[in-house]
Amino acid sequence: MVSAHLEILPIINRLGFFNSFTAEEKGQMVSDDTHFRVYRPGEMLIRQGSSDQSLFIILAGTVSITEGTGETIFAVLRAGDIFGEMAFLTDTRRTANVVARDAVIALKLDRVRFEQLSARIREKFKDKIIEKLVARLDTANKELVRINAAVSDRFPEPSKPIGSPPGRPAADATEPAFISGRELIRKIVSDTASLPAMPEVMLKVQQMIKHPGTSPAQLSKIIETDPAMVTGILKVANSAYYGFRGKVSTIQHASSLFGTRRLAELITAMSAGGVLGMAMGGYGLKAGDMWRHSIAVACTAGEIASSVSAEAYDSAYMAGLLHDVGKIILDPFVQERSVLFDHYFAAHPDKPLQDAERDILGFDHAVIAGILCDNWNLPRSISFGIRHHHQPSSAGGHQLSHIVHLADYISVQAGLGAGGKAACHVLDETSSAAVSLGSNFLQTAADKAHHYVESLTGRLLGS
Questions:
Q1: What digits encode the pLDDT tens for the residues 88-128?
Q2: What residues have CB less than 8 Å from 164, skipping those under 6 apart?
Q3: What are 175-203's pLDDT values in tens digits?
Q4: Domain-ending residue, one of 65, 84, 119
Q5: What is the number of domains present in the chain?
Q6: Which range of residues forms the domain containing residue 283?
Q7: How confident is the model over 52-64, as pLDDT tens digits?
Q8: Is 400 part of any domain?
Q9: Are residues 115 and 206 in the same domain?
């Protein structure tokens, strides 16, 4: 225990770790000296295999990270370094020993003491933990690159790997494993193979509905040679949502009942199932999870748009359907950074997924979705609305951004979220002000979305 308040405060003030803490917050921490410990040279701070789950920040001195008998030193940590965060975040036993190399002063926080700190201080600690984890991963990444380069120099590979496709260059051994920000976006955009093509049926429908004279009969011709699509449309037509209950037996009959807009909407949603229905390991989504959520958001966005302007319905439905399509492209990048994402959510359990994407990747899935929609030549208003649906207040009053944001939020609150990692969702209050909805709208829209999803998802999910 350190008993002198004045001895600790100057140390904290010198450490970059505490730069974001205010003078008042620093004062609060040092007011309780039970957080601080002094260790003699050779004294063990953490014993391998122990169940202690405290977090440590070194204020002065150095420690060695060792394993077993301690003959091999894996790392030396100094003032400002964190250790013990893995057990603190994940409730696991200690995987290494930590021994004082000289006299050490450390801030030691167990779960109880950590929760006693103010919310602002806890949040700043969590941010610092994430920064340190990212820095450590970057260091390990660079070391791996160095080792790969050394191995390549010593044991050079052929210019083209055995079995590689003609014309495809060998992988660059010195390329960093994890890139982010604009560099990662450039990689995604330049690699056209990573950008999925718009489903052919959806493309044809989008081209046809641009012409005012398109009839339901013309739309039905697109799908009449696709037995699975025809079966799906008939199943939806006879579902409880539309109320025809077994009375519709041909695609021509269904087309006449639905009308051009509704039929185009159903064909689009079903054709999108092949793209949106895939399992995504990086995001923790099972097959069909995102498709089901996307349909709910499309339905709700259409309802919101209809209450504002009938002309906005088609754009709102399409934007709602495709609002999360960027996850398809980002999923492998999220999966290979799964350790970073897991640590982030452990430290920030109340933060939404897009915050983790921005902090770790440098951008979120909405940005990539907007780029993909531009690549598909969808109207600019749709791609813009999708790009800003998580931050509609930054879209300069763009109504579709607010509509998709509200539809996404309502769907999640109604139990129609995609699930997976960080399923929490935060409402941007500016959207409530930008789009005026009646007091009964939320419940009505949620009920319609539930029935709509139930009517559609049987085809893809077999439910």
A1: 877 778 888 899 999 999 999 888 888 888 888 988 888 88
A2: 170
A3: 445 787 888 888 887 775 556 777 777 87
A4: 119
A5: 2
A6: 200-461
A7: 889 999 999 999 8
A8: yes
A9: no
